[in-house]
Design a protein that fits this description.
Keywords: Signal. This is Aromatic compound dioxygenase. It is built from three helices and nine strands. By secondary structure, it is an alpha+beta fold. It has a single domain, classed as Aromatic compound dioxygenase (Protocatechuate 3,4-Dioxygenase, subunit A, Sandwich).
Length: 249
């Protein structure tokens, strides 16, 4: 089962009015090859799928930041790629690729921080929170669960990209990544998720979704089922383009 294909291209201005404008660069060819290689490595028959033939807007330029929500300072114990911490839910492998939009090349050693609600939309102090470095291919994989919908927004995962190899290094991107309404509907009706008492918010009604997907940009995770159907789990792909020389905090 597969509902959507998407890329985040999120180059970030420094948080001051005098910041120099970022140079636009078309990374669509490199990103198309990057994502095809990621699926091929998992044994996906890419010949049967149309995967990133072009970037949605053709040119990798600035995309909006979203407000950092439900964030807590992580300590070194949360530097980990498996953030599940015993939480029940539909298994998800989140594949995050980080590219330097000034060179169109993957960034090795970037610290990617993620945090999300559990299957009933609740955040914890440590569960479903973690950070890990990208490898030589610019990719980091998190073992997690599909997020339930929180009380104040659509289903999403929060994400920050640090330019250095620690969580104390500067941040080049703060944002949220979302899922299509069909995916959240079908998983939301399954065991565990259906006990969520938060009022459900569709993507179109979430102002953070609108901000992240404005100006032609797309902040929706590309989803694929593991095995024949989603109860066995899902893989989610997202690519984040940053300028490591520009910080948001």
């Amino acid at each position: 089962m597969r509902f959507a294909t998407s890329v985040i291209c999120a180059a970030v201005l420094a948080g001051i009015a005098s910041a120099a404008p970022l140079e636009r660069r078309d990374c669509s060819t490199e990103i198309a090859a990057y994502n095809l290689a990621r699926r091929s490595a998992r044994g996906v028959d890419v010949s049967k799928r149309s995967i990133y033939p072009n970037m949605p807007n053709q040119v990798c330029v600035l995309a909006p930041e979203t407000v950092r929500q439900d964030w807590v300072q992580m300590d070194s114990s949360l530097v980990r790629s498996d953030i599940t911490e015993g939480q029940a839910g539909v298994y998800m492998l989140l594949d995050v690729g980080v590219l330097d939009i000034t060179t169109c090349q993957p960034i090795e050693g970037a610290m990617v921080e993620v945090w999300q609600p559990n299957n009933v939309g609740e955040y914890g102090e440590t569960f479903l929170r973690g950070a890990f470095q990208t490898g030589s291919n610019g990719i980091v994989e998190f073992t997690t669960i599909f997020p339930g919908h929180p009380a104040d927004g659509a289903n999403h995962i929060n994400l920050a990209v640090h330019t250095g190899d620690s969580m104390s290094s500067g941040v080049s991107h703060n944002g949220q990544v979302f899922f299509t309404d069909p995916w959240t509907t079908i998983i939301g009706a399954s065991e565990g998720y259906s006990a969520n008492t938060n009022p459900r918010m569709m993507n179109a009604n979430d102002p953070n979704y609108a901000a992240a997907n404005s100006q032609g940009y797309n902040a929706i995770v590309d989803m694929e089922s593991i095995g024949d159907d989603w109860p066995s789990g899902v893989v989610g792909y997202i690519t984040v383009g940053i300028n490591p020389n520009h910080l948001v905090q």
